[in-house]
Amino acid sequence: MQYSTSPQIGHLFMAVGLSQHDVALLRLVDHAFLKALLILAVGAVTHGMADQQDLRRLDSLVSFLPFTYTAILSGSLSLIAFPFLTGFYSKDLILELGDRHAFPQLSVTEYASGFSSPMSSRLPSLKVESIS
To answer: What is the C-alpha to C-alpha distance for residues 55 and 123, in angstroms, rounded to an integer?
Structure first.
């Protein structure tokens, strides 16, 4: 989950390089809230599993912690810039500004942002087995 921050820092530097400080601040605040949501949700799963951190023992998070699963799912979808969520608007605005100013690193940034999707989509698919 932590590796998805590197492409986001690239987006922030790109926005600052374009002198779009307000857009960079929007992306920074958006990313901070998304990461806080995901880290707190993972902490709730760990607490609900009696401090079990072995991913091999996880099975069916939906039935075990439905509210936490919903939080993880919405945070992960927003982190991968699913349309009509906050992550989509902040990331799309930076990419649109870079395209408008013919920023040469735009293709590298788009390529790097594609790495966030597999990492973030792995988290909601974890399964939790009941501990008895």
So the answer is: 11
64 closest CA partner among 78, 48, 51, 80: 48
What SS3 class is residue 127? coil
Q: What is the pLDDT of residues 39-81, one digit of tens each?
A: 898 888 888 877 766 666 666 677 778 888 888 888 888 888 8
In a domain, 128, yes or no: no
pTM: 0.73
For residue 127, being part of any structural domain is answered with no
Residue 74 lies in a domain: yes
Q: Looking at the 3D structure of the chain, how many domains does it have?
A: 1
